[in-house]
Write a structure and sequence with these properties.
This protein is of the alpha/beta class. The protein is built from 14 helices and nine strands. The strands form two sheets. Strands 1-9-8-5-2-3-4 form a seven-stranded parallel beta sheet, sandwiched between helices.
Length: 327
């Protein structure tokens, strides 16, 4: 009887090592690795991701041109932050830097989430980049975290998933949506909507948030979206940025109560009671908004890039001590 040839059994960790050696050390394509190991190409992609996640493969980039900077320590000490995380400067379009900051923000967020945590996720391009990076890797384990949006306005008609849902996918958590707009026409409409049981459920969870991640927005408001009276008031008050649809000035004072009366979002004035508050933003247009958020004590952790951090620190030095309100 002729003996049958067969592929020797390979342990789970052994398969990770084999795939990694073929791909990273021998330079084989993923298709060729799949052929050698007798698996599919998508399986190879998952093996390589697992190899990185489990420490089988360690990728280290040595940036010999990086300039040593103490700006992270200076910002942390100046504003009493728990941590400042800086992405390197990258040439190219703004989207490239945003993705780099997003990957760093994803690492910070993952490290902050504990099993069973209640996590709040804001909106904006930077937070979307964080969500993309979190969702790019399969969760190491199910955290059981509850993940909620910090603002209304999350609904999509296309294939895209909202940032808070993508974060929940990536950390093995449970997403709970808020079916309400972020901005309404008048205070009466807001009062009616926040009385709804579904909105009250999210508001109750907001009271128990342990980790919040949000973008730091610039002055992108327009009369078409907010009305000319609101825009005029923002200009008079010297608004430089916004967090969770709450505008503030360069010294971190929240302004324009008329706008707050029309928003359905976590009240940014209450951010101080959340233990971990991760603000994510970068680029020249975000220097003034970041400084205002820092001066207002809105963050415990800042995720940005090195040039932005240096510009924020320089502006803080030029600005001088926080100015007290005059009205």
């Amino acid at each position: 009887m002729q003996a049958r040839s067969h592929r020797p059994a390979v342990s789970d960790i052994g398969q990770l090592v084999q795939a990694s050696r073929l791909y990273y050390e021998l330079g084989e394509t993923q298709s060729r690795v799949a052929e050698i190991l007798g698996v599919t190409r998508p399986q190879v992609s998952r093996l390589l991701k697992r190899a990185r996640a489990e420490g089988v493969v360690e990728i280290r980039i040595v940036d010999r041109e990086a300039v040593s900077s103490a700006v992270a320590d200076d910002l942390r000490d100046q504003f009493g932050l728990a941590a400042v995380h800086l992405a390197p400067a990258l040439a190219g379009p703004e989207e490239v830097s945003r993705r780099m900051i997003g990957r760093l923000g994803a690492e910070v967020l993952r490290a902050a989430v504990r099993d069973g945590s209640i996590v709040g996720i804001g909106d904006g391009a930077s937070i979307s980049a964080v969500a993309d990076a979190v969702a790019a890797d399969e969760p190491v384990h199910e955290t059981g975290a509850t993940v909620v949006p910090l603002c209304g306005g999350y609904w999509f008609t296309g294939p895209a998933r909202e940032p808070f849902r993508r974060v929940a996918d990536g950390i093995g958590g449970l997403p709970i949506g808020l079916l309400a707009p972020g901005l309404v026409d008048d205070p009466a409409t807001k009062r009616s909507l926040v009385a709804h049981a579904g909105v009250r459920r999210i508001a109750d969870l907001w009271e128990r948030i342990e980790v919040a991640a949000f973008g730091i927005g610039g002055p992108a408001w327009s009369g078409a979206a907010l009305g000319p009276d609101i825009v005029d008031e923002l200009d008079r008050d010297g608004a430089v940025g916004e967090v969770l649809v709450s505008p503030y000035d360069l010294d971190g004072r929240f302004v324009c109560d008329a706008l707050r009366d029309r928003t359905i979002a976590f009240d940014a004035r209450d951010l101080g009671r959340i233990p971990v508050r991760i603000g994510v933003a970068g680029g020249p247009a975000k220097v003034r908004p970041i400084l205002g958020a820092l001066r207002g004590g809105m963050l415990t952790t800042l995720v940005t890039d090195q040039p932005t951090a240096e510009a924020v620190l320089a502006l803080d030095d030029a600005r001088g001590p926080v100015r007290t309100a005059t009205r």
